[in-house]
Amino acid sequence: MFAVIKTGGKQYRVAANDVITVGRLAGEPGDVIEIGEVLAVGEGESVTIGAPLVEGASISAEVVSQDRSRTVIAFKKRRRQNSRRKRGQRQHETVIRISEILTAGQKASPRKAETKAAAPKAETAQADVASEGTEAAAPAKKPRAKKAAAEKAE
Fold first, then answer.
1. pLDDT value for 34
2. How far apart are CA 52 and CA 37, in angstroms?
3. What is the pTM assigned to this prediction?
């Protein structure tokens, strides 16, 4: 199944598990975002084209990274005038992986959200054990530099 989406004023033909680079989108790496501007959805010969958007269709994607594009140099020179100007510009980009194409108002599978929600619970459980002050709590680690200096002093 494929879809044609619109983001950042450009159109992209995508399928599940495609990795594409688009203009800057909000989100940190690992976040799941939803793109609602779907212009066409299809599989094989059957294609649904929206007017202008397909009703109830959306794309679920995972943010892979936030990057900047290669440098574009704008160099201007006026001959015989001893006048030059050189400017560089790098556009902000987001690399996304298409997770799934949703049609007819389906909801995205919350697999990434569950893993992010489970991580803070584990951290708080470790903090509770450490705050009890029992013998089972892990001892505090000293930085290596101080440990090495202490061994030399002995």
1. 92
2. 9
3. 0.62
